[in-house]
Each structure stands twice: as structure tokens, then as C-alpha cells.
Design brief:
By secondary structure, the protein is α+β, with helices and mostly antiparallel strands. The chain contains seven helices and 22 strands.
């Protein structure tokens, strides 16, 4: 699932509190808000990410780097979130989560939204009394309307500013946004198009009351987020990490016992340990050389996925080399995503410096980067995807450890 972060505005209502800093770069817990959002999205398996930028676009790109793609709203000062959203219509090509950049939110809010599996909008039934709150009307769990001027007797809570849409609904929402813009609605909020869509399609309203979150519009919003919202999120995050450490420790102990019970101790017996390449599906191959040595590597393009079957338990090495234009001598950043079955192992931000040893007919070759992975027992599908790079092409080699039994 893709993510679209709307971050073009200036946040002028913060006054001197922002000191000309765009809202998504305001620090909470010693980190910019956008860092918190990107981390939460990545941990939930949402990506790739695009940001619609306008005010201070260069400063934001310097912080975020290749963790996001960018759509530029050059008219940010005379438009609003509806127009920024519409500009991303060519980038979105599947289900998408739309997030306002000025929100700090608990990871479970995103988790509840994704669990709805379809068109959904997060709202807080414990809020919505303020004049500046984007209020929502909900009937039988379905979003009916959202507006700051919603009559009090219709208010079910406050819009959180995080929505998820199927590709079909996202396309319909882009068309509706385009119609509103054509009618002179460039300064309208994205909510105006959402209000039109909910007349035609069912959008679930997901209540997240009790979970900490905060939208930062005014100086007191920033103070509240720093003093009230962030400490709760941080406390829960620490508790979650402690739980995962205990769970990983228990899993590691169970794996050791399992390996001993299944006779895996033969890996420790005398014999030759070798690394055997896995057969990579769906991608092309190319050859590189150092002197008279030749190697064959898989060749993956940006956003292309290499897939292979691996039978565990077995250690696996995932080697990557970014390809660069000939003559480049500086380090080149890139991001590789690794999945085992339907579980994301992680996004690995690598940096490749061109090698003086290895050669390719058309490119310069960066030095090898390695990811080690222990695949558990059973048959699994391993997927490796080049998420982002400046060059858009990368070499890949995946090998598993093989024990050659001298008695066979």
C-alpha cells in the first residue's frame, strides 16, 4: 500500500513558534514530525511514500532524502490540500493512505485504519468540540460528512487526518477533486472532495478514541503534542520494544531447541560449508568481472521485485551492488526492501561507493553490501525489492549456506 503525505503548506497560524520552519520539520521528542510519520508507516508495512511539497521543499527533501518521492505544488501559497492531493494523481497507482503532515499519531491508529481493509477514515469520538476542529458525521459506522461548520447535533467526533482508499476510490476521489478545482475550488480542503465521494461510496469511520494523537495548527497545539501526546506514544513504544525483545529471545531459544531436536547439529560437524546461489525469478541477469574472474548477478530496476523459494532452516546472504554512471566516484544511497512470505523483514538503507576492482560493460559498480537473514524451517518465499535509488538499477545475488556431507 502506498502512502501520500500532504506537506505543501506553510503553517502560518503557528506564528513565531515555527520560526519559518515547515510544520513537518517541527521537532517533537528531538525528532521532526515527518521522521515519526515515516517510521510509523514503515513499521506498518506501508510504502512507497510520496510527499507533496511546496513551502521549504528543499529543506524537507534534505531531511527525508530517498525515503520518499516528491510531487511539487508550486502554487502552495494560493491553493490548499485539495489541490495538493490532486497533483499526486499520476503517482498513486494502487491503494493509498493519505496523511496530513502536521499530525503526530500513535501507531495503533494506523493499525486500526489498515485493519478496516478498504476505504476508511480515522476519527476521534472524544473530540470535535473546538471551532477549528474538522468535525465528522457518522451513521452506522459510515462516514457521512466532514466540515468545521458541521451542526453540533451531527458531530460524532473529530477527523484525525489519516484516510485509506482502495485504488478505485482513490481514482474517483482524484476525479472529484479535479471537478471541484475546475469550478474554482483550488483553496478548498481535501475534505470537500471526500464529502462528495461518501455520497457515492461507503467509507468506514474508524473510531480511535483513547489513542494519543494531535494536529498542530496553533502554538498551544504544539505544546500539547510535546507535553501530552508524545510522552504516551514514547511510553507505549518502549513497552512494545521490551515485549518484542522478550518475544525474539523466546523465539530464538525455541529455534535452537528445534534445530537440536531435528538434527541440525550436523552443520557443526566436520565437512565443507559452501554458499549456493538461489534461483531468482522475474528479473534479468548480467555479468561483471574483476580481471579474469566473472560473476553472474541478477539485475533489478527501481520498484522491481526479485522472488525466490528457499527451504529452511538455513542462513541466507543477500548481496547488493548499486550500478552508477561511469565516472562517478562519490557514494550513492539506495534502499532495499526484504520480505519473507508476507512479513517485511525491513527496509535497508545502503550506501554504495564505486569499486575500483569490478567492471561492467555499461555502468560503474559499487562495492558490495550484505544483509544476513536466518530463514526458519519450512518452504518460504523470499522477495527483494529496490525501493529507491538515484540510478534506478541494482545488482542482486542471493545465496544460502549448504553443508556438503563428506560421507555422502
Amino acid at each position: 500500500m502506498q502512502a501520500l503525505i500532504l506537506a505543501a503548506g506553510r503553517g502560518s497560524r503557528l506564528g513565531n513558534k515555527s520560526a519559518e520552519i515547515p510544520k513537518c520539520l517541527l521537532e517533537v521528542g528531538r525528532r521532526p514530525i515527518i521522521e515519526h510519520q515515516l517510521k510509523t508507516l514503515a513499521e506498518a508495512g506501508v510504502g512507497p511514500v510520496a510527499m507533496v511539497l511546496g513551502y521549504c521543499a528543499d529543506e524537507i527533501r534534505e531531511i527525508v532524502g530517498i525515503r520518499a518521492e516528491y510531487v511539487i505544488n508550486s502554487r502552495w501559497s494560493s491553493t490548499n490540500s485539495l489541490y495538493s492531493f490532486w497533483l499526486a494523481r499520476e503517482w498513486v497507482n494502487g491503494p493509498v493512505v493519505v496523511v496530513n503532515c502536521d499530525i503526530l499519531f500513535h501507531p495503533d491508529i494506523l493499525g486500526r485504519l489498515l485493519a478496516a481493509k478498504g476505504d476508511a477514515s480515522a476519527f476521534d469520538s472524544g473530540s470535535g468540540d473546538g471551532r477549528e476542529h474538522m468535525k465528522v458525521a457518522v451513521v452506522n459506522g459510515r462516514l457521512i460528512s466532514m466540515s468545521k461548520q458541521l451542526p453540533r447535533n451531527q458531530v460524532a467526533g473529530e477527523n484525525v487526518g489519516i484516510l485509506s482508499f482502495t485504488e478505485e476510490t482513490a481514482r474517483a476521489l482524484f476525479r472529484k477533486a479535479g471537478q471541484l478545482i475546475d469550478d474554482g475550488g483550488e483553496k478548498q480542503w481535501l475534505g470537500s472532495a471526500v464529502c462528495e465521494i461518501v455520497k457515492e461510496r461507503e467509507v468506514l469511520a474508524v473510531d480511535v478514541a483513547g489513542l494519543p494523537w494531535g494536529e498542530i495548527d496553533f502554538p498551544y497545539d504544539l505544546d500539547r503534542v510535546r507535553k501530552e501526546v508524545w510522552p504516551v506514544i514514547q511510553r507505549d513504544s518502549r513497552a512494545r520494544r521490551r515485549w518484542w525483545r522478550l518475544a525474539r529471545g523466546a523465539a530464538a531459544l525455541a529455534l535452537v531447541l528445534l534445530l537440536l531436536m531435528t538434527g541440525f547439529q550436523r552443520w557443526l560437524s566436520p565437512g565443507e560449508l559452501t554458499w549456493e546461489p538461489l534461483e531468482v525469478e522475474n528479473v534479468a541477469t548480467t555479468r561483471i568481472r574483476a580481471g579474469d574472474r566473472w560473476q553472474t548477478w541478477s539485475l533489478i530496476q527501481a520498484d522491481e521485485t526479485a522472488e525466490m523459494q528457499v527451504f529452511g532452516p538455513v542462513p541466507v546472504r543477500i548481496d547488493s551492488r548499486i550500478l552508477v554512471a561511469k565516472g562517478i566516484s562519490t557514494e550513492v544511497p539506495y534502499v532495499v526492501e526484504v520480505e519473507l512470505d508476507d512479513w517485511r523483514v525491513g527496509w535497508f538503507k545502503e550506501t554504495g561507493k564505486p569499486s575500483r576492482q569490478w567492471r561492467h560493460a555499461d555502468f560503474g559498480i559499487a562495492k558490495r553490501q550484505r544483509i544476513n537473514l536466518d530463514v526458519p524451517e519450512g518452504l518460504h518465499t523470499l522477495r527483494v525489492r529496490l525501493v529507491a535509488s538515484d540510478t534506478g538499477v541494482c545488482l542482486l545475488r542471493v545465496r544460502q549456506k549448504v553443508f556438503d556431507d563428506p560421507e555422502e
